[in-house]
Each structure stands twice: as C-alpha cells, then as structure tokens.
Write a structure and sequence with these properties.
Oligomer: single chain
Shape: globular
Order of helices and strands: HEHHEHEHHEHEEEE
Radius of gyration: 18 Å
Helix content: 25-40%
CATH superfamily of the largest domain: P-loop containing nucleotide triphosphate hydrolases
Distance between the termini: 22 Å
Strand content: 15-25%
CATH topology of the largest domain: Rossmann fold
Largest sheet: 4 strands, parallel
Number of strands: 8
CATH architecture of the largest domain: 3-Layer(aba) Sandwich
Strand order of the largest sheet: 2-1-3-4
Number of helices: 7
C-alpha cells in the first residue's frame, strides 16, 4: 500500500520507513518496480530508512526516540509535503516486548505523533491479525485508525486474474483524527471491498465483478 499512498500524495511526500525484518535493498527493489525511487528520496532528504535488527526486549523507548529523530530529520518548518511514518510490521515489534504496559505506551506515543509535529504525521502501520494474544491491542489500534485496509484471501479460492480482496474501512471523514464531520448526512463509518492483483511491476486494485 505504500507505493499507492506515495502516488496519491500531492507533491513530494516525506517518509520514514521502519522495517523489522527486511533490508533496505528489498524495499528499494520492490518500490522501484512500482515506480518509486527510494534511493533518490533518501538522497534528496525525503526519506529515512530505519534498518533491522529489532530492538532488544525493553528497547521500545529507544526505538521511539529513533523514530522521532528520523521524522525531525526530514521535517522542516512550514513544510507543505505530507509526512508519513510506515512500520512493517508492528506484530514483529510486539513479539519482542513482553510487557503489556510498555507496549501500550509505545502505541500511544506513535498515535501522538499525529499531533506532535506541525501538519501532523500520517501513520501507516502493518499488522498481522491472526496472532494469538494480540486481539486486544489490534482492536484498539483499528478503533483509533481513520482508515483500515484489511487484506483477505479469495473466498472462492485461487484465481489467475485476482490475487485476493482488500476491504477498505473509512471510520471518519475528517482530515484530523478525532473530529466529527459537520454534516449529519456524512457517514462516520464506511466500508467497501475491492479485488487486487499482484504482478512483478505493480499492485492493481479494482472494483468487484
């Protein structure tokens, strides 16, 4: 979804990409196939890549500091470009932190980034929802999100033309988290299902049918 988000942005977005398992070269190759040049973004000061390995148990406080420093590195005052933090994946980070209180504090700090810097930060967080014991914080995170993309397998099984389905859930049509749309006719919750197809060069998302 990151390439789709980058292409949808007005102007040149600024991105902090945190990977928990995959090296820089993996993302460079994957994004290049979809028309996004990660090397150029890094060289121009529009992107910062935070490499694995994962932090040691109890290291989430230091990781948050690293994330904040990376955002501040590419953020400039009166910056008109979108500022994006992408974490792939939160599930791997959770597996390294046994303490529930420390983990929830980390999630609250991430959510607070949306208001910390002028103009806010768009959080793009990849989560696996099939991990036993993660249901509580997964539900909290989805409830806190404005947009949730849920990737699903095809109910009918394998198809050469369709890889799977994506359910898009729009939970508030406000541009700022927590604000309620002024028009009573605007739905607070909206969902729609799309098909998607993976290829070597792109991800295509299209209507059902």
């Amino acid at each position: 979804m990151l390439p789709c988000l980058l292409r949808a942005c007005t102007g040149q977005p600024k991105v902090v990409l945190l990977s928990t398992t995959r090296p820089y070269n993996h993302y460079r190759a994957a994004l290049r196939r979809m028309g996004v040049k990660l090397d150029a973004m890094v060289q121009q000061g529009h992107a910062v890549f935070i490499e694995p390995p994962l932090p040691e148990p109890g290291g989430l406080r230091q990781l948050y500091t690293t994330i904040l420093q990376a955002l501040q590195k590419i953020w400039t005052e009166n910056c008109a470009q979108p500022l994006i933090l992408c974490i792939d994946t939160l599930t791997d980070l959770r597996a390294q932190e046994a303490g529930q209180q420390v983990w929830m504090q980390f999630l609250l700090q991430l959510r607070g980034l949306a208001h910390l810097l002028e103009g806010g930060v768009c959080l793009m967080l990849l989560v696996h929802t099939d991990i036993e014991g993660d249901a509580v914080w997964n539900c909290w995170l989805q409830h806190s999100a404005q947009v949730v993309w849920e990737v699903q397998a095809l109910e009918s099984g394998h198809s050469a033309a369709i890889t799977g389905q994506v359910v898009c859930k729009l939970q508030c049509l406000s541009l700022q988290p927590g604000l309620i749309p002024s028009s009573a006719s605007v739905p607070l919750h909206y969902g729609k299902t799309f098909n998607y197809r993976l290829s070597d060069a792109s991800v295509d998302i299209f209507e059902l049918g």
